Amino acid sequence: MTSSEVLLPTTRRALLHRIATAQAEGRTPSLVAAVQRGGQIGWSGARSCVDGHEPDGDTQFRIGSITKTFTAVLVMRLRDEGLLDLDDPLEKHLPGTDAGQTTVFQLLGHSGGLAAETPAPWWERTPGATRPELADVLGEKPSVHPPGHRHHYSNPGYTLLGSLVERLRGASWAEVLRREILEPLGMDRTTTQAHAPHAGGWAVHPWADVMLPEPAEDLGLMAPAGQLWSTTDDLLRFAAFLAQGDERVLCASSVVEMRAPAAPSEAGDWAGAYGLGLQVVRRGSRTLLGHSGSLPGFLATLWFSVEDDVAVVVLSNATSGPLIGTVAADLLQIVADAEPRIPEPWRPLPEFDEELLALTGPWYWGTQVHGLKLIADGGLEFQPLRGAGRGARFRARPDGTWTGLDGYYAGETLRIVRAADGTVDHLDLGSFVFTREPYDRSAAVPGGVDAGGWRGLGA
Q: Which sign does the torsion angle of CA 258, 263, 264, 265 carry?
């Protein structure tokens, strides 16, 4: 790490103060955290109730539902290989369940309407052998809502996704995970069972400073929903992959796809949403991506901000106490606000199309002005020039049209419409006509343009 990558002493002091406060006020036996920026770990710290035994970046903690993000990546790999479509009903690939009408997409985004938990007894504190079959995981009434109607978090839904991976790969979920994610990313301290050094799980009495050991059960079929143990070092490697993609695991465009909200948020929860195996949280003007996790004796959170190029992991060995998600968000904010990301130098495009360059500049929909720009990778950006409005980036298609990538025009088609003499008449964006001049009489404006033209008050 170069000197420019080391956080300032004041920033490091603020980070340490935040985790020290979290450990003390949250009354957790231990807490470890780490911050990454620019792909490098810039700070790590820990607190413990036992002098001289603070955890470090190599100490395993149970990470609970962060496991779901790993499972989601495995499913996206199957999609990218053409082995399934996200809109496929589960029944097509995993027949015989009572949730077969639910699509893969709905399972990934928790909109399949399945129950939040398995039938009793509580699956997190009982051996996986208690539920040897999928029918034992789903119960007699697996659905509590119609599929696709609302976001409803479902742990059994990720058991189904893990079983789907096993069916299509012909190997156990754990083996596929190791082979397709952990080994390529160098995450050799992320495992399905604890390997020393690891923390023990504890419950802290709510009204007295005493502790009780928590069991660490093998979750069996529920493993894809919450089985994994990991470390801050390993999870920051995973965060770097989730921010940028890695062709050995999942391409950047598929990782970006995972970040988009997959279902409307619950009423009143406008600050949070869920993508495909990723939580999406708004904190002020900042978007945080990642996942939280908990199992008896453990709490965990991974957050990253693509815009700030900062990732944070916080792990704790208490069933409840410290608000891990808030702590992780605070650590990210401390770094991003105190030491903002330095922008990359502006550089000209390596190459460009002369015909596209001629199309740049202002275009009018009626009297509203938009600006067309060339951007990197041969794309276009079309944005309103006055106030808020509809805009998007566009990617070229082989047929000469352009597809919207985001915003209101995501998925919509932009066409360059030419007159009989080959000159550009107008732009057609989802049937909206954009001309070089407001209500250009020489262009094909829907409804035509008044023959008298523009006029003043005395006309």
A: negative
Residue 294's pLDDT band, with cuts at 50, 70 and 90, is very high
Instruction: Give pLDDT, residue 458.
Output: 80
pLDDT of residue 377: 83
Quickly count: other Cβ atoms within 10 Å of residue 38's Cβ. Answer: 14
57-61: average pLDDT = 98
What was the pLDDT predicted at 39?
87
Alpha carbon of residue 241 to chain centroid:
11
The pLDDT value recorded for residue 1 is 39
Q: In this structure, what are the phi and psi dihedrals at residue 283, rounded to the nearest 5 degrees?
A: -130, 100
Strands of 279-283's sheet, edge to edge? Answer: 40-48, 30-37, 310-316, 298-305, 286-295, 279-283, 272-274
pTM metric for this prediction: 0.91
Are 262 and 111 within 8 A, CB to CB? yes
Which residues, other chains included, contact 273 with Cβ-Cβ below 8 Å and sequence gap of 6+?
151, 261, 262, 263, 264, 265, 279, 280, 281
What pLDDT was estimated at residue 4?
A: 43
| % of the chain beyond a pLDDT of 90 | 90
Tally of CB atoms within 10 A around 187: 23
Q: CB neighbours of 280 closer than 8 A, spacing ≥ 6?
A: 259, 260, 261, 272, 273, 274, 287, 288, 289
Task: Write down the pLDDT at residue 272.
Answer: 83
Q: Is 146 exposed, middle or buried (0-12, 13-18, 19+ CB in 10 A)?
A: exposed
Angle formed by the axes of helices 66-80 and 155-169, to 10°? Answer: 40
CA pair distance 332, 281, nearest whole angstrom: 13
Using left for φ > 0, alpha for ψ between -120 and 50, and beta otherwise, residue 436 falls in: alpha
| pLDDT value at residue 434 | 96
Q: What is the mean pLDDT of the chain?
A: 94
Burial environment of residue 346 by CB neighbours within 10 A (0 to 12, 13 to 18, 19 or more): exposed
